[in-house]
Amino acid sequence: MTRLILFNKPFGVLSQFTDTKSPSPRPTLSDFIDLPGVYPAGRLDRDSEGLLVLTDNGRLQARIADPKRRMEKTYLAQVEGAPQEADLEPLRQGLTLKDGPTRPATARLIAPPDLWPRDPPVRARKTVPDRWIEVTLTEGRNRQVRRMTAALGFPTLRLVRWRVGAWTLDGLGPGAWREG
């Protein structure tokens, strides 16, 4: 029987079980999950938070991570500045990054979500506003949401992956996991 784990990866945690190359220890999945034989289906950057799907089924792992399958992934991004709906149009059309054009994404402004506090907190600047946007991608390039918002002139301050396919973070606090 296939095992599927939904994990809320905290900020600063690597999306792998070991970190042998670093001279100083960094938190990894093994600090939170003690289940032999499960592996992440895709990655989430160390400075990003949110849903990481793990499984013991290689076929399922490949299907979730394979960009050709176009599995939707939804992110909540706190960005620097005050974008308007029209500013998000390039995300919806697809824009060109250094590694080529992106697929069109779904993007909309949202109210600040009811999330757990980040540790360490996002740096607040009194003179620079920030807003939250929701972005849904069907591809998963390295640091893609961050690069896309920066290309629009609104750098990402905090990034939380909320959904992968039909799985969400609903009811799952940082560092917690459950069977999917």
Task: Tally the beta strands.
Answer: 11
CATH superfamily of the largest domain: Alpha-L RNA-binding motif
Q: Estimate the mean pLDDT confidence.
A: 92
If you consult CATH, what is the topology of the largest domain? Alpha-Beta Plaits
* Euclidean distance between termini CA atoms: 13 Å
Largest sheet: 9 strands, mixed
**From the structure provided, what is the oligomeric state, counting identical versus distinct chains?**
single chain
CATH architecture descriptor of the largest domain = 2-Layer Sandwich
The unreliable regions are none
Provide the succession of SSEs: EEEHEHEEEEHEEE
**What count of structural domains?**
2
Strand content: 25-35%
Derived structural class: mainly beta
Helix content: 10-25%
**CATH secondary-structure class of the largest domain:** Alpha Beta
Radius of gyration: 16 Å
| Contiguous helical run count | 3
What is the molecular shape?
A: globular
Features:
nine-stranded mixed beta sheet; about 180 residues; 2 domains; mainly beta; two-stranded antiparallel sheet; globular; Alpha-Beta Plaits; 3 helices
Q: What would you say this structure looks like, in words?
A:
The protein is mainly beta and 180 residues long. It folds into 2 domains: 4-65, Alpha-Beta Plaits (2-Layer Sandwich), CATH 3.30.70.580; 70-164, 2-Layer Sandwich (Alpha-Beta Plaits), CATH 3.30.70. The chain is 12% helix and 30% strand. The protein has helices spanning 58-65, 89-93, 144-151, and strands at 4-9, 39-40, 49-55, 73-80, 96-97, 100-101, 106-110, 130-137, 156-164, 167-168, 177-179. The model has no long low-confidence stretch (mean pLDDT 92).
